[in-house]
């Protein structure tokens, strides 16, 4: 199998490319519209055909490239069934394996950051989206976020995976790339070790994070599988620069 971890610096988002060298099919997890050309170039370089894009959740900090990649390559869109997106070709369900050639993802419903958030287990690694970050987790104060639910998702579902399972998060803001379930269980300051539910809820309540500056544009656009708004302010234009500059667009 072929695996690449790709980074989008504006929103500090990781996109993951998984390719099956036998069939030539590939999957992109959490592609970002601003780096679509990079992803297409990487697919061409590796001699792969994009079969599916897969998102972990409806993002609030970037626009997914799912729809534009479908237009450019004919790829299909897979997304959590919980969100009932009419633009998705496949709705992913917890407990139902998602197979693309020799690639098999195990969808894990991990609500808490958003109500419809999913992680995806692939062989010895899990793509945790915003549910579990390296030494952290996603916020729980919008989009159906729920600290109780996130604590349960991580402690009961993700932390039940084998300790050597590699953790590939949806974001990192300190130039870190990968962790492990055992590492997060031991040292994650929000969810690891002996942190109780009440302690976790207190930690999340005290974060006092600012309102996401791109959220009012990203969420509606991502409910359409990746549509950049026509009224995007100039100070946010880099989030959709791809669409103004790319010949794909």
From TrEMBL:
CDD domains: POD-like_MBL-fold (cd07724). One of its GO terms (molecular function) is sulfur dioxygenase activity. Signal peptide: none annotated. GO terms for biological process: glutathione metabolic process; hydrogen sulfide metabolic process. SUPFAM superfamilies: Metallo-hydrolase/oxidoreductase. Residues 12-171 form the Metallo-beta-lactamase domain. Keywords: Hydrolase, Metal-binding. It comes from the Bacteria. This is MBL fold metallo-hydrolase. It comes from Massilia glaciei.
């Amino acid at each position: 199998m072929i695996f690449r971890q790709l980074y989008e610096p504006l929103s500090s988002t990781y996109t993951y490319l998984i390719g099956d060298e036998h069939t030539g099919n590939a999957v992109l997890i959490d592609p970002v519209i601003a780096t679509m050309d990079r992803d297409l170039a990487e697919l061409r370089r590796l001699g792969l055909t994009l079969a599916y894009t897969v998102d972990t959740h409806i993002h609030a900090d970037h626009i997914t490239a799912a729809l534009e990649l479908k237009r450019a390559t004919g790829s299909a869109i897979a997304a959590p069934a919980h969100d009932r997106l009419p633009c998705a070709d496949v709705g992913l369900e917890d407990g139902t394996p998602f197979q693309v050639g020799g690639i098999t993802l195990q969808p894990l419903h991990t609500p808490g950051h958003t109500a419809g958030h999913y992680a995806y287990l692939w062989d010895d690694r899990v793509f945790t989206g915003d549910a579990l970050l390296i030494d952290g987790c996603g916020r729980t104060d919008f989009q159906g976020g729920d600290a109780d639910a996130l604590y349960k998702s991580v402690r009961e579902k993700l932390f039940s995976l084998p300790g050597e399972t590699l953790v590939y998060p949806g974001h990192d803001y300190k130039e870190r790339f990968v962790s492990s379930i055992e590492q997060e269980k031991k040292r994650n300051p929000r969810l690891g070790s002996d942190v109780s539910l009440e302690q976790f809820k207190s930690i999340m309540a005290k974060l006092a994070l600012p309102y996401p500056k791109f959220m009012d544009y990203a969420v509606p656009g991502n409910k359409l599988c990746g549509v950049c708004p026509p009224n995007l302010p100039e100070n946010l234009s880099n989030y959709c620069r791809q669409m103004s500059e790319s010949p794909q667009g």
